[in-house]
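Field reference: sequence -> structure
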Amino acid sequence: MRLAAVVSEAMQGLASASSSSPGALQQGHQARPSSHAPPPPPGAQQSPGRTPSPQKPRLPPPRSTFPELEEMSNSDLAQALTREEAYGQLLQSLMTGKGAATEGAASEVVRQLRGSVEAAAQRNLDREEEMAEVRNQIAIIRSSEYAPAKAAYDEKARRQQEVLELLSPKVVVQRLQAAAQQAEAESEQLYRSYTEGGLSLEAFVAQYTAKRTLFHQRDLKAQAAVHTIPMDV
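Structure field:
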């Protein structure tokens, strides 16, 4: 709820109380001397030559809305509650408006609101000890538990980064190409051994066929990865 709504609601209650108070109705007119006769009852015919008694002044009806407050921001209303100059300007604007509440009612509103603000501030000050204790606990945790936890987290983050780098598309393609080159080099070594008489025909065919098959599998996988997987990931 905006601060203006709180001020407006309080102003309505106090203005209603002021308008129904007998003392408020008696302000502003002089008391009739006891030696004069009481005024005739309402509706009675006035005697010739008698001056009619003045009517008692009445307060204007209480206001149901306070547009001046609705147009003010929370910051301006807060300044009116804490600064005498701003408070005077607010009171003057309320007093000069149509159907404005009396100065006493406005002063009571501001007094109650100021008391509410002071009570809220006091509650915050009362929790200062609790806040200090919480700050001490945070300091203890940082000094005793935070450092080991941070070191363990950094180590796990480093290992995760290493694993991610090993599984990156670029690294996978490079490893497939290296494995294909290794299989091809081993097949070439088998061929030289056979030509030099180090292997029989049956052994050469079996081992050479397996190495060439492995080479082509790895080479095809590497080429497929290069053409299908984005290398900038």
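Note: The first helix runs from residue 3 to 20.
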